[in-house]
Amino acid sequence: MASALKVNKDLVRERQKCTFDVKELTYIWEGGREFTEERQRYENIVYSVKELQDEVPELYLSHKERYESSIRKACILQRLQNEYGKKHKVLNTRTIRLVGYGAIRDISPFLLHNGMFIQTIEGQGTPEQQAEWMPKAQAMQIIGTYAQTELGHGTFLRGLETTATYDVKTEEFILNSPTLTSHKWWPGGLGTTVNHCIVAAQLYINGKKHGIHLFMVQIRDLETHMPLPGINVGEIGPKLGFQTANNGFLGFKNVRIPRKNMLMKNNQVLNDGTYVKGMNEKLTYGTMVLVRVSIVSDAANVIARAATIAVRYAAVRHQSQLKANEPEVQILDYLTQQHKLFIAIATSHAFSTTYGWLYKAYLQVVEDLGKGKQDHLPELHALSCCLKATCSRDSAAIVEQCRLACGGHGYMASSSLPIVYGLATASVTYEGEHTVLLLQTARYLMKAWQMALQGKVLAPSVSYLVDSLKSNKQSWQNTPEFIVKGFQHVAAGKIKDAFHAIQKHVKAGKDYEDAWNLASVQLIKASEAHSRAILCDVFWRGTIIKSSTASPGVAAVLDHLVQLYIVYWALETVGDLLLYSNITKEDIAVLKVKYEELLALIRPNAVGLVDAFDIRDEVLNSTLGSYDGRVYERLMEEAMKSPLNQEPVNQSFHKYLKPFMKRAKL
Ligand SMILES: CCCCCCCC/C=C\CCCC(=O)SCCNC(=O)CCNC(=O)[C@H](O)C(C)(C)COP(=O)(O)OP(=O)(O)OC[C@H]1O[C@@H](n2cnc3c(N)ncnc32)[C@H](O)[C@@H]1OP(=O)(O)O
Ligand SMILES: Cc1cc2nc3c(=O)[nH]c(=O)nc-3n(C[C@H](O)[C@H](O)[C@H](O)COP(=O)(O)OP(=O)(O)OC[C@H]3O[C@@H](n4cnc5c(N)ncnc54)[C@H](O)[C@@H]3O)c2cc1C
């Protein structure tokens, strides 16, 4: 952190105003003091390594140079991480990724190795397969990715075209990409980094198709890194963001792999070609469930980064006058600015709390599956789908809102907000496209509604549907508990409407599938409303628990944030509440006042709240958001690093401009 002398005076004043213990909130936000201290220790090591510091900002490098730089840094990071893990504790994924961003400035080309390749071996491999591949993968003797999506299909997994045909004579699978559209397309690290892949392919035995299975395939020689025979591999080129993720394409031509390379924890192929079906074919999709759960945490982190930048900038930036003859005010004092930014802080806490809850549910399901119990799998799938969809979408919208809240300077690459937006918006699509995942949840909600009508017991996350069937709703109260109930009424109402819409189309003679498509706008709205009800409920209940052991100062700000989140969404969806709950116009007027009061309560703590995210300057990498608030100095310093500023006259003047000006006619 910068010394107090150099810190911008507005930020110094803001920090003096703060009414709570910032460190205590950091510990709560991060899940415990031990996690914060572990991260800080590791950050101190990583950010003191000279080789990880940039001489030229990454953004001025070419596509190729950026990739090479990211590999160089990722190797240093991986070594530091492994050494740290041996001496201290194994670091959690959040810390590894957060610190990685700070060094690489974008996505690590090892992201898929560390985030999906290892997890798939762990979750889908037999104990023998784990024993063979895990140590090599963890030590990075083999580097891999998760190669599922193809040029032609990403969403509809049953439509994937890559084939793995079992040859009973040699006890091998033969991999082929029969069409252009069957080429793998997108996997991170696939372009030029990895030598192994987990490949999703259609399994064929004796001409019979058994659906999607996962296979461990070596694609490059470990010594020369040359593609192995039959492998056509490369990089897919620049994208909106994720520039250093090294996303690639891959095609197979009669590539043979041994039988033992099919991941066989769930389904098996025996030597003689006998196919043994596992407990549930959807368990093949298990890694995706884990990553969808993790994306809720990613969404919290990405918002925290954007909020830190935008709130600190809004404290430093003065523009316009509220009253004539008075100094220009900090833009953070405009209520509209608070409206844009405080919801970002609150949302980050909402998602972080929800992630903790969802991850616990995930671990429980994994434990149950180990005992052969799969009762809660559909509920987990439904929750992870809609929460991934809603949190990633909200995170992209909020990051963009933060960027816009920084005016022109938010458009500067050096603010880091464009790159953070690139990260956030990618997550709306990857690991299951937004609408598609909402529709998966809607499938579950339709079944739940049917069960509620039949008086059956429902899973906890949808048990509110039973209440909503009771006709005598209590009169509205403007308390958080009651507003959460209101969101549940909205969700139940939309679920019911979507259900009836399908029924109406079916009664009119449509097939169920066509009726589903005709009702699908209503279905995604029902799914979104369900997500919001879950987010508000979990955030409210989770905050009560967190506050119970917190100091009064921290408990108070947590209460302000959770109330702000709930009231914000009540006002955003006021039309829905009017349609589906007992809220009145008078209640809404009271909520509007309450919302403004909450903004005023949060205002003195705004900078303290983003400081509590404890994101180091190296991670923020932002001219607008650093701890010391030297915004204008940094903007100018960064501009001076432009290669165009390294010479007084660029050669293009002599080559093009001057002759052009000479030839120009009046
Ligand atoms: C741990 C560290 C984390 C690090 C984070 C790393 C971040 C990495 C950053 C970027 C990486 C990005 C990687 C990728 O994008 S990998 C590719 C991801 N691809 C997808 O997500 C594809 C999306 N499509 C699907 O998941 C499915 O095809 C589908 C949309 C769900 C539809 O599948 P299908 O057609 O087979 O199924 P149905 O619709 O017919 O449904 C049949 C029943 O199955 C149930 N189902 C489906 N999926 C699951 C599942 N995963 N688990 C449990 N159950 C599932 C479904 O609900 C249906 O049930 P029902 O009872 O209604 O019949
Ligand atoms: C940055 C990034 C990294 C990625 N990394 C990987 C990786 O490492 N490994 C990997 O295997 N994949 C990866 N992917 C691929 C990613 O998982 C897919 O792009 C994603 O699942 C969406 O699939 P799609 O591209 O086929 O979209 P599409 O399904 O083609 O979506 C296009 C449109 O069609 C709509 N649509 C499609 N189906 C339906 C439906 N049934 N009902 C209603 N609407 C529908 C969608 O809503 C969307 O609006 C990555 C993608 C990105 C952007």
UniProtKB/TrEMBL annotation:
Ordered alphabetically, the record's keywords are:
FAD, Fatty acid metabolism, Flavoprotein, Lipid metabolism, Oxidoreductase, Peroxisome
What Gene3D superfamilies does the annotation carry? Answer: Acyl-CoA dehydrogenase/oxidase, N-terminal domain (1.10.540.10), Butyryl-CoA Dehydrogenase, subunit A, domain 2 (2.40.110.10), Butyryl-CoA Dehydrogenase, subunit A, domain 3 (1.20.140.10)
As for subcellular location, the record says:
Peroxisome
Q: Which domain of life is it from?
A: Eukaryota
- What InterPro entries would the database entry show? ACOX_C_alpha1, Acyl-CoA_ox_N, Acyl-CoA_Oxase/DH_mid-dom_sf, Acyl-CoA_oxidase, Acyl-CoA_oxidase_C, AcylCo_DH-like_C, AcylCoA_DH/ox_N_sf, AcylCoA_DH/oxidase_NM_dom_sf
Domain (Acyl-coenzyme A oxidase N-terminal): give its ranges: 21-143
Give the family, as the similarity comment puts it.
Answer: Belongs to the acyl-CoA oxidase family.
Q: What name is this protein filed under?
A: Acyl-coenzyme A oxidase
Recorded source organism is: Loxostege sticticalis
